Amino acid sequence: MLSRITLAVKTPALRRMLAAALSGPNIWMRALSGPRLRWAAIEKSGGDLLIVEDLLVPPPSADRLRDFCANPAAPGVVLLAQKEDPEARARLLAAGCDAVLFAGLPRARLSETLDKLIARRRAADNRTMTARLGSETPTLDDFNSRNADMRYFLDTARKLVESDVSLLIMGETGVGKEWLARAIHNAGARREGPFVPVNCGALPDHLLESELFGHEEGAFTGAIRSRRGMFELAHGGTIFLDEIGEAAPHLQVKLLRVLQDHVIQPIGSEEFISVNVRVIAATNRDLASDLESELFRRDLYYRLSPVTLTIPPLRDRREDIPDLVRLQMSRLRARAHRSVSGISPEAMELLCRYDWPGNIRELINVLERAMLLCRGEVITPADLPETVRQPPGPAAAPSVPPAKPSSDSPLSAPAKTWREVRAKTLEEAERAYFSALLRECEGRIGSTARRAGMHPRTLFDRLRKLGIRKEDFRPSAGAERRDPARPKAILPLPCG
């Protein structure tokens, strides 16, 4: 974590000396000056540690500092006293100061003492953040597999653990993208640093920007105090950007700046903060298709994906299911508080035949349910959900809806209300319009959106609701098709 130090010192020589002593790659120091040296402004400065000269604290200083330190969001306080007074020092420490130092100490000793205080504060903050974000310790051995594609995938992943290069992990929902990112972090040189996950699809755009980059007090309505962002919290470690394909265009621009220059700018701040993080992103979307439809920036894609890893879905490596079942049951046994020791061959066969659209996440859910409902010590077919016992047949491939109203047109259904008829008629008109445009533009979302006078993302969402697939309008002659059954790790081509 990056340590934020606020320096509130009025004496010029002392301020210059401390500013030089507190410079370092893991410290972001703000030296207050001018009107910001008033106590009312100092109280709102935020940060992890406040180093303040005693002459800037209004009397009675012990009472003022006691009120300040009582705020749970307040930084630690190091008071620089102009004279040595053991009784005053005891009162100030009792008021909540982390330390009271004599400003006349030799520079080397003062610098050494401050370094120890900052290191102690950083260690405490790291422990708090680890407890809040979780401390799971997955390893790459958790992905051991009998499947040839999966073994190739793992061989490539092991080559990347010691690198600081950005990484893009792709795969369906539930295949374990975050678990893999944690495993790579835990095996790499940044293992002692934090692993900070952010779900880019879980928050509105304006909240996600604050979550990633932080904000200053008063930057927007409701910003009652400064808040550091996840990039700053991940300093020295790894930030995991899940569902990166959901990030809005203006956020993609800011992410590109971080990857290029390794600096962030909190919302409402005029200052830039240098951060040292490894970025691992993940998505279940086809970003290559989003590039063509202009939903995702090409320059950001290339920055995120010097190497791309695609995790195979569970249905393509059924030979791993028995081992996964035994592993997950051993992990779930303590949480379920049940003495379920095994699974019957018939139940295992059903698990191996099922297609697992939710992948490993669904497998864990099914096993946890079965262990909770199991009547004995062995899971049987009766303990499995109906969907697993009788899996549905393969779904029919979606087709392009007809452009013209069919025989079941809403106009031939007088039993419907006017609202239903109007909605159905409008939907059919939209379907016919967008189908015609896509046909003329050969399935290209960007060109179709320009013709329709709408944003590509809006068009993409509308097509999805209408059940229209842009792939059905692309020319088939000479088109290159990628076999999705064999996921590969994509390595950068050598230059020159």
Description of the structure:
With 496 residues, this protein is an alpha/beta fold. The chain contains 19 helices and 14 strands. It folds into 4 domains: 3-133, Response regulator (Rossmann fold), CATH 3.40.50.2300; 140-312, P-loop containing nucleotide triphosphate hydrolases (Rossmann fold, 3-Layer(aba) Sandwich); 316-389, Helicase, Ruva Protein, domain 3, CATH 1.10.8.60; 416-473, Arc Repressor Mutant, subunit A (Orthogonal Bundle), CATH 1.10.10. α3 (61-69) runs parallel beside α4 (86-95). It starts with a strand and ends in a 30-residue tail after the last helix.
Q: Percent helix among the residues?
A: 40-55%
Strand count, sense and barrel status of the largest sheet are: 5 strands, parallel
Strand order of the largest sheet: 2-1-3-4-5
Structural class: alpha/beta
pLDDT averaged residue by residue: 83
As residue ranges, the low-confidence spans are 395-406, 477-496
The CATH class of the largest domain is: Alpha Beta
Total strand segments: 14
CATH-level-2 architecture of the largest domain: 3-Layer(aba) Sandwich
N- and C-termini, Cα separation? 39 Å
Q: Strand content of the residues, in percent? A: 5-15%
Cα shape? globular
Radius of gyration: 29 Å
